[in-house]
Amino acid sequence: MDARVDTFITYLVVEKGLSLNTVESYSRDLRKFADFAENLEILDPGRVDSILVISFLLHLKDNGLSSRSTARTLSALRTFFRYLTREQIISADPTVNIESPKMRPHLPSVLSIGEVDALLGKPDVGTGRGLRDRAMLEVLYATGVRVSELVTLKLGNINLDVGYLLAFGKGAKERVVPLGETAQEYLKTYLLASRPVLLRGRTSAHLFLNGRGERLSRQAFWKIVKRYALQAGIRKKLSPHTLRHSFATHLLERGADLRSVQMMLGHADISTTQIYTHVTQERLKNIHHQYHPRA
């Protein structure tokens, strides 16, 4: 089982080109399943049947795993066994008739426009690092790119004459995302006044740099964001996607069509984007309840 998982993970990286986070998630879920099967002395994936898969999912549930995480694990198992079937390593897919657990939509946390303004206003643009931080925050909110896409941007990925950037999302898929005027101005200022100082005479193809002139990591950037959120008095729990969620929600609240938002976010399936319609509906209910005299 472990050897088949190793081969499958290599396939995801080399042939499918999935992101590191996705590959790590698949690997973690499949290793847990392999350990579970091994404890029952089932070492050959050809001996796995639907009863074993269901028993594993129930085991996860009994140990407190949420419906959403259980569904993610089942998705990993489906992909794994579909791959083994296609490669003729096993004769039948044991997951084919197993239904995913029903889930309530998980509504992402978003910032209000006032909170976004407060957050973006915290970096001290009189310093090189503060100017870099403001430019990154402006680009993140203006485009809705993933944090992993933001920190891997290169100089050749932005066009400030026309006002767009090229983002490379999951599966190395490329998409064009418009840049707003404010983000463009802060990027221009950063490129002229801050980035050369951070480089310290070196060269780099990466757009956003740390104090050593190297690419800023995703983890370092989110520590920066959380610090500014604390300074801005934002008590909401921030996730790596908070500004991305806010970007999509604010667009839809102002009448943007779902398909355009899907394209800007880089979602392969529009059903993923539809979660933001639930967010806007929930926010409208809250506003109505708060302000209508007969709510």
Write the layout of secondary structure elements.
Elements: H1 2-16, H2 20-39, H3 50-62, H4 67-86, H5 113-120, H6 128-143, H7 147-151, E1 158-159, E2 164-168, E3 174-178, H8 181-199, H9 218-231, H10 242-253, H11 258-265, H12 270-273, H13 275-291
Antiparallel strand pairs: 1-2, 2-3
Give short descriptive properties of this protein:
hpI Integrase, Chain A, 295 residues, 3-stranded antiparallel beta sheet, mainly alpha, 13 helices, single chain, DNA polymerase, domain 1, globular
Explain what you see.
58% of the residues lie in helices and 4% in strands. With 295 residues, the chain is mainly alpha-helical. It folds into two domains: 2-86, DNA polymerase, domain 1 (Orthogonal Bundle), CATH 1.10.150; 113-290, hpI Integrase, Chain A (Orthogonal Bundle), CATH 1.10.443. A three-stranded antiparallel sheet has the order 1-2-3. Strand 2 and strand 3 (174-178) form a beta hairpin.
Compute the average pLDDT.
89
- The CATH class of the largest domain is Mainly Alpha
Indicate the radius of gyration in whole angstroms. 23 Å
Name the helix and strand elements from N-terminus to C-terminus, one letter apiece. Answer: HHHHHHHEEEHHHHHH
Strand portion: under 5%
Strand arrangement, major sheet: 1-2-3
End-to-end span in angstroms? 58 Å
Largest sheet data:
3 strands, antiparallel
CATH superfamily of the largest domain: Intergrase catalytic core
Overall geometric form: globular
CATH topology of the largest domain: hpI Integrase, Chain A
| Content-based structural category | mainly alpha
Low-pLDDT residue spans: none
Return the CATH architecture of the largest domain: Orthogonal Bundle
Helix content: 55-70%
Enumerate how many helices there are, as a single number.
Answer: 13
